[in-house]
């Protein structure tokens, strides 16, 4: 008997009814916040993800499904969709349209992670991109939109964690400080973190290995390194959430971008 590939799954009734309900609610919420749907190919040139996600990230270095096309070009099944959305935004000159562009997508993504409960090699992602504004209120609105979607889907008890990763001016300075702080302690961290300490220090903060946590807790916080633009921006996001009655917790070690 031929079975589904390890790390994938079939969606069967009655689960497909639940799936379609979540899909419908997501589209309703996005429409109310004036987001429009974008659909991109499920594979792109490999270089798009290497540049957009980062060549030293775990996604690019270990998790992508990459293959050579017949013409010798390298193609990759999309591991995420932000890079594809930005590629489409530039290619189709959407930057020529005035004002803020709000886009959402729903579809399959692919990563060759170690199969485990709740994690699949073909997974489905709902995402949104607001392009053309640096307003903190746009950032906060995206967070509000996600909480609204979860609530309408009937989820309760979820916990909102937020952080700032700075900008192109203050983030590199913090990364340099973090890399310096890691030098005397990296030998005591797990193998992945020893590698990340050199290639992508921010990802050390996201480590889940219990034995590494006491060391990570003593590392510098990015909140102490935010520049004169990012610090008030982050404060404004928090103010918006408080005004909307959205509870949150600041998590200085949250670094996924």
How does this model look, in words?
The chain has 257 residues and is an alpha/beta fold. Helices cover 39% and strands 14% of the residues. The chain has helices at 15-32, 46-52, 58-63, 82-91, 136-152, 170-182, 191-199, 213-217, 230-243; strands at residues 36-37, 43-45, 66-68, 74-77, 101-110, 122-131, 161-162, 249-250. α1 (15-32) packs antiparallel against α5 (136-152) and α5 runs parallel beside α9. It is globular and about 50 Å long. The protein starts with 14 loop residues before the first helix and ends in a 7-residue tail after the last strand. The relative contact order is 0.12. The mean pLDDT is 92.
Helices and strands in order:
Blueprint: H1 15-32, E1 36-37, E2 43-45, H2 46-52, H3 58-63, E3 66-68, E4 74-77, H4 82-91, E5 101-110, E6 122-131, H5 136-152, E7 161-162, H6 170-182, H7 191-199, H8 213-217, H9 230-243, E8 249-250
Helix pairs in contact: 1-5, 5-9
């Amino acid at each position: 008997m031929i079975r589904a590939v390890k790390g994938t799954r079939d969606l069967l009734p009655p689960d497909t009814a639940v799936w379609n309900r979540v899909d419908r609610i997501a589209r309703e919420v996005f429409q109310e916040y004036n987001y429009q749907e974008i659909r991109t190919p499920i594979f792109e040139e490999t270089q798009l993800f290497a540049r957009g996600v980062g060549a030293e990230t775990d996604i690019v270095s270990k998790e992508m499904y990459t293959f050579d096309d017949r013409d010798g070009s390298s193609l990759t099944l999309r591991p995420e969709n932000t890079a594809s959305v930005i590629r489409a935004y530039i290619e189709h000159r959407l930057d020529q349209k005035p004002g803020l562009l709000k886009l959402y997508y729903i579809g399959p993504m692919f990563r060759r992670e170690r199969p485990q409960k709740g994690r699949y090699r073909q997974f489905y992602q709902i995402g949104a991109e607001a392009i053309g504004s640096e307003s903190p209120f746009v950032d906060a609105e995206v967070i509000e939109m996600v909480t609204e979607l979860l609530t309408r889907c009937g989820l309760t008890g979820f916990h909102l964690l937020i952080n700032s990763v700075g900008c192109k001016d203050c983030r590199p300075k913090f990364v340099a400080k973090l890399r310096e702080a890691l030098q005397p302690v990296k030998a005591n961290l797990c193998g992945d973190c020893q590698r990340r300490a050199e290639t992508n220090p921010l990802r050390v903060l996201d480590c889940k290995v219990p034995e590494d946590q006491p060391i990570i807790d003593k590392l510098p916080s990015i909140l102490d390194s935010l520049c004169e633009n990012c610090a008030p921006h982050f404060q404004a996001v928090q103010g918006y959430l408080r005004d909307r009655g959205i509870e949150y917790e600041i998590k200085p070690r949250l670094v996924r971008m």
